[in-house]
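Input sequence (599 aa), recorded before submission:
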Amino acid sequence: MSNSVEVQFRDESMSLPLEEESTTPHDSNGGISVGGSSKHKEETMDEEERQFLSVFGSAYATNAQFWKGIFISCLPQGILMALIALAFFNLYTALANATWLTAEYHHALNATSASLEEDSEEDPIYMFRLGNGEWWYVGLLAGAGLAVGLVKTIWNLLVPERHAFPRKVPGFLDDIRGLHADNVFLPLPMLICSAVSIGLGASVGPEAGLGATGTALGTILSKRWRLGKHQAVAFQRNGDSENLNHEQEENPSCLSKLLPDFSQDEKLVVLDGIGAAFGALFPAQYLGPMLAFELGHHWFPGSELSAMETLARTGFSASIAFIVFTSIQNFTILKETKLPAAAYDFLPDIDAINMFEGGVLGIVSGFVGAAGLVILGLGQVLGNLTHDAFDRVGGTLGLDKRRISLGLLLTPVVGGILVGLLCVLSPLCLSDGADQMGFVISLGRALGAGTIAVAAVVKFLCLAFSIGFGFVGGPIFPFLFTGACVGTVASLLIDGIPVLVAVPACMVAVPCACIPAIFTFTTLSSMILVLGGAATSPVFFACICSYTTVCGCGVLHKLFERSRRASSKKGTNENGAQADLMVEKEEGANACKPNDGPA
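Predicted structure, C-alpha cell format:
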C-alpha cells in the first residue's frame, strides 16, 4: 500500500513538467508503440538539426530584403559617408595647415634621429620641449571656441526648438547603443563644430561627428517613405498612428515606389551607416564593424538582429567607404606609423616574461585611464558651472537661453583659453594627437621621460577642457596619444621593458580601461604599428588587465556612483536653498504689509 501511494505521489508531482510527453501512445501490453517511437525520433532529429544549423546562422542571403539592404542601404551610405568623411578631414586639415601646423611644426614632426642636435635651439624638435609653445595659441583657441559657439547659436536661431543644438552632444557610444538619431539635422552643425575644434587645436577626435552622421543617415533611410512630408508630420503630431498607417497603405507617395520599406530594419540600416562612418577612420575597414560589435551589445541570444547578417552588411558598407576614401586620399584618417627600426629586431624573441610585462603595463595603464576619466569628469563639472554662470548673466540681460544662450556661445571661449595655455606649456598637445602620436612613438625618447610624462597629463587636461567646455569631438584619439606617451615613458624608465612591448601595449590599454573594446584596440595597435602575431600577444594581455583593473573590479562603477551621489546632494542643497529663499521672500513681504490690528 505504501508503495502504491508513493508511486501515485511521484506521478502527481511529475505530471506538470512531463505533461506533454505523457501523450506518447502505448500498445495494449504497456509498451511504447512503433509509430510513436519513430515520431519521437523524427522530432529529436529535427531538434538536433536545428541546433546544428544554428551554429552556422540563418540563411539571410536567401531573403530579398538582405539584397535590398546591400544595394539601397550599404552601397549608397558607404559612398556618401566616404565623401562626407573626405570633406570633413580636408576641412580640418586645411584649418590646421593655415594656423598652428606651421612649416616649423611640420618639420619637427617629420624630424629624424640623424637631424637631432641635443640642447640646441637649432634642434628641429626644440619647439616641443616644455614651455616652448607660442603664446598666440591662446588667442587661436579662444577664437576657435568663439567660432564653435557662433555656429551653435546661429543654428539655434535658424531651426525650430526641437532641432536645436543640445547642451550635451551625444557621443559615439550613444549612437552605437541607441541605433537611432532623435535629431537627424544635428550632424550638420556637429561636423562643422568638430572640424573647427580639431583644425584649430582643441583636443578632441573625429569619431563623434562621423558616428553621429552615420546614425542620422541610417535613421533617415529607415523612415517609411509613404506619405508627403506635411501629411505625415500632421498625423504624427496628432498621435493618430492608425490613420497614418492606413494612409500609408492607401495613398503611397511616389518615393515609396522607388525605395523599399526599411521601417522594420531600422537598427540594421543605422548600423550600415555607422559601419560606413568608421570605414575610413581606422587603418583597416573591419575595425569599424568590430567596434560596433563590441560596444553595441545587440547580438545576445534572443536579439532581433542576426550577428552574421549584421557583420555582412556593416562590413560591406565599411569596405565601400574605405575603398572610396583611400582611392581619393591614399590613406585613412588614422594613419600607420612605425616604431624605431631597432625595435622590430625584437619580434622573434617575445616570451613569457614579455607577457608578464604586458600584464603589469596593462594594470598601470588601467589606473592611468581611470585618472583620465576623473579628469574628464572634473572638466565637465567646471564647464557646467561656467555655462550656468553665463546663462545667469544672459538672464539678467533679458536673453531667452532657448534661442540665444550666453553659456552656449561663450563657454567654449573660456575652454579655448585654458587649452591654449596648456599648449603653450606642451606644444605636443595641440589638436587630436594623431600627427603627434607618430612623433612620440618614433622620436619621443629624444625629448626625455619628463617631457613626455607631462605631455600625457596635459593631454588629459586639454581633452577635459575641450569636451567639458563645449568643443565637439570624441575621446579616442587623445586617449591613444596619452597611451603612447605612457608606453614611451615606461620604456625609458625601465630598461628591461622593450619598446616593442611598452608602446603598443600602453597605447591601447589606456583607452581600454573605460571602453570595452579589447579586440578592436588590440587589432588597432597591430594595424597602426605594423606588428606581427607574436608582438600583439602582450598587447592583448595588457588590454585585458587594464579593463579588468578598472571596470572588472568595479572602480569605474564606484566613480560613477560617487559622482551621482555628489550630483544628487548638490541638487538637494540647491532645492533647499531655493525653498529658504522663497520663505525669506514671503516673510519679507508679510513684514512690509500694513498692520491693521493692535500692536
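Checked by second reader. The chain has 22 helices and no strands.
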